[in-house]
Amino acid sequence: MIFLQLPSPADTAQAAYQTMQQAATAETTAVTMNAFDLALKGGWLMIVLLILLLMSIYVLIERTLVINKAAKEDNSFMNRIKDYIHDGKIDAAINLCRNTDTPTSRMVEKGISRLGRPTADVMSTIENQGNIEISHLEKGLPILATAASGAPMVGFLGTVTGMVKAFMDMASAGTNVDINILSTGIYEALVTTVGGLIVGIIALFAFNYLATRIKGIVNRLEMRIMEFMDILNEPAA
């Protein structure tokens, strides 16, 4: 009599576990790819996106430091300027402006240097200095604006070139078309699109952040200049 030897439940469970473990290991090996390797799949256009990203980060950090310095203000500055002007100590007021060295102090210094002239001339001089200060604060913002709009376009260009490459590889393969043949072009198409969008979003957020900070400083400058003009027009105590 021939007896059939059936596997025990324990052997069956162990075999199933080993099979699942092998499948998981194979899947992990297949999908493991770090960000650098993935970026390389995007082709030479990723170099352009990298340059735009580095420029955006540099402008963001550098402008933030400049804006933080410009945002610092001595709360007693305008009161001291008022006292000096009413006491006739013009040289002391100018020295205070030069030692303070802020956008507000430089604009006030220009106004003080025009004392005795018509109010319109004083105001025009202050406005001209204000335009110079604003221009200094906004330096570098065009780079962020260019990166915010240009990076997605570079990514879309990579999408087109990648798909063209994929179809060219398909045509060259003839009837032996394989997914590995098409993967190079498809990788380039998708990776450059993602890269362009990431760089564009970072640049856009950086631009809006800096523009908002600068707008706040400009509003405060306008308030200080109006306060300065009031000092010039009010009678001395």
What percent of the residues sit in helical stretches (DSSP H or I)?
over 70%
Structural class: mainly alpha
Please write the string of helix (H) and strand (E) elements. Answer: HHHHHHHHH
Percent in strands: under 5%
User: What's the alpha carbon Rg, rounded to whole Å?
Assistant: 33 Å
Please describe the biggest sheet, giving its number of strands, its sense, and whether it closes into a barrel. none
- The average pLDDT is 79
The domain count comes to 1
Low-confidence stretches: 23-31
The total count of helices amounts to 9
**Inertia-based shape:** rod-shaped
Rounded to the nearest angstrom, the distance between the terminal CA atoms is 127 Å
Q: What is this structure, in a nutshell?
A:
The protein has 237 residues and is mostly helical.
Please characterize this protein's 3D structure:
With 237 residues, the chain is mostly helical. It has nine helices and no strands. It has one domain. Helix 5 packs antiparallel against helix 6. About 4% of the residues have low confidence.
Topology:
Layout: H1 9-31, H2 35-40, H3 45-71, H4 77-86, H5 90-100, H6 103-112, H7 119-137, H8 141-173, H9 179-233
Helix pairs in contact: 3-8, 3-9, 4-5, 4-9, 5-6, 6-7, 6-9, 7-9, 8-9
